[in-house]
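Instructor's aside before we start: the two examples that follow are unrelated to each other. I chose them only because their records fit on one page, so don't look for a connection. First example below.
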Amino acid sequence: MSVARYLLVLGRSVSGVSRPRWPGAGREAQSATVRWVAWRLLGANHRELARSAEVFADPAECRAAIAEVVVAITGGTGMCETEPVGGGWMWSLVAGGHRLAVSSRGYQRLPECRNNVGLFLAAAPGATVALVMPRLLAQRGDWESLDVPAG
């Protein structure tokens, strides 16, 4: 049986612009480092449910951010907000005034947006963390900090 999983996404900031653009859909996270890591949550059907609102300096920080999302959901400290954007709708998970996760795309209708929030809230706490991309970069020798245990 397939389960939801977090995938780590590796990127670079070139001249102040993230590649790939993150989190996308008209929003841009700022990185203090040239190389960064972010996460995206895929459902059991391999569709993207959410992504990190920020980028992180290394895989360990990214995994800590994933743990923060799970605590916000399971502990009831997080709140999902929907907002109209460019004629559509997007959502974000906010805890303690800090945006933790965002929808990976915009939705034409508010009910679709709310449905995606429900899918995210149901899948995120039990999702596994896949370190596929960091392993690939480790083989290429392109990342120094990969001493993060698989979860």
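Example two begins here.
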Amino acid sequence: MNEDIIQAAFNIGGCIAISSSIWKLYHQKIVRGIHWPMMIFFMSWSSYNIYFYGHLVQNYSFYAGFTILTAEIIYLYLLLYYTYIEKKSDSYSSYLEEYEEKAISGSLSKTEQRPMTAPEYFGNRTNSVPRFLGKSPLKFISSRKTTRK
């Protein structure tokens, strides 16, 4: 067995390991304990490896490098997506808590007689967010229609 095949096996093993993290994150939908610089470092290293393996004409490692890079991109995307959703829901939750405190203390103004709904609260700020962020990214990807000729 030559070194190219061994390196490709390590890359595919790394892809499988990252895929298990993707699966767990997709089902838990919550981000905890992730060190962002580490993720960016390993993704940039995988990007460089694709160039490096191509330069060395190590074809198996070159193609296996795409698998681990793709897994890292998907994982980073899900991390950013679920962090964004959590922060967005936290800001609305804190607004509702403040509203409840005002209602209990009786310090509501006449314009605040009912709490705002989430679309009212976020207003135009959601217009700058891509449309697919309203649903699960994997459902968005699978729901896209592809036409084959």
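The chain has one domain: 3-143.
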